[in-house]
Design brief:
CATH topology: Muramoyl-pentapeptide Carboxypeptidase, domain 2
Low-confidence stretches: none
Shape: globular
Strand content: 15-25%
Length: about 140
C-alpha cells in the first residue's frame, strides 16, 4: 500500500533537515511501509520545548521529554530531530506493537540511503517516536 503525508505532516517535516526529510519521505512511500505515518513534531521553539519539559513536572500530564529548552535536537533550525508515529485506524498510535515495526522500517530505509540516524527507542529512556541525526 502507498501512503502520503497529510498537509500538516508535510509542513512539520519541512522544518527538518534535508536528510531527515529524505528518510521519512522514502519510508512512507516504500511499499513495505507497515502503516500510515504522521509527523508529530519537527522544529520546536525554545518556548514550545519549555512547555513540553514542564509537562509532568510543573503542569499536568505525563513527562514527555528530558530535554530542557535549547537541549533538544528539535530546537535547531532546521530541526535535526523528528517525532513520527504510526497512524492506525484513523488516529496516531503510541503503542509499541505499532511503533517497533515502523522504527525497524525507517532504520532500514535510512541504511539503504546511507543516512545515519539515531532512534530514541534504542535509548535507556525509550522515546519510540523520536529519530535524530547523530552529532
Amino acid at each position: 500500500m502507498s501512503y502520503h503525508w497529510s498537509q500538516r505532516s508535510q509542513h512539520r517535516l519541512s522544518t527538518c533537515a534535508d536528510d531527515l526529510q529524505r528518510v521519512l519521505n522514502a519510508a512512507l512511500a516504500h511499499p513495505d511501509c507497515p502503516s500510515d505515518l504522521t509527523i508529530v513534531h519537527g522544529h520546536r521553539t525554545n518556548e514550545q520545548q519549555a512547555a513540553l519539559y514542564a509537562q509532568g513536572r510543573t503542569t499536568p500530564g505525563n513527562v514527555v521529554t528530558n530535554a530542557k529548552p535549547g537541549e533538544s535536537r528539535h530546537n535547531s533550525w532546521p530541526s535535526e530531530a523528528v517525532d513520527v508515529v504510526p497512524y492506525v485506524d484513523g488516529a496516531p498510535s503510541w503503542e509499541w506493537m505499532h511503533i517497533d515495526p515502523m522504527a525497524a522500517h525507517i532504520k532500514r530505509i535510512a541504511s539503504d540511503l546511507d543516512i545515519a540516524i539515531t532512534w530514541g527507542g534504542d535509548w535507556r529512556w525509550r522515546d519510540g517516536a523520536h529519530f535524530e541525526l547523530p552529532r
